[in-house]
Amino acid sequence: MISVTRLNGAPMWLNALLVEMVEESPDTYITLVTGKRLIVLEKADVVISKIRDYNRDIGTYAATIKVQSMEELS
After folding, report:
1. Residues in the chain with pLDDT values less than 70
2. Which residues contact 41 (CB under 8 A, 6 or more apart)?
3. Backbone dihedral region of 33: left (phi > 0), alpha (psi from -120 to 50 degrees) or beta?
4. How far apart are CA 3 and CA 13, in angstroms?
5. pTM for this structure?
6. Burial class (CB in 10 A: 0-12, 13-18, 19+), 61
7. What confidence score (pLDDT) does residue 60 get?
């Protein structure tokens, strides 16, 4: 989970694995794989950084790199 802030200032925890898209125009919109859209105070690059850090923390990033290198060997 990553922490983001709703427009009213309330903190919210979001399952980073459900994020499909992050866009900034000028508000930051997070679209989930379920189709739900959220507007948050953080800038898009901050949200993306939090998602990357989360993926590294749970090992998703390392697993992806391992699969890619195994595919290159075959």
Report:
1. 61-74
2. 4, 5, 6, 7, 9, 28
3. alpha
4. 5
5. 0.79
6. middle
7. 76
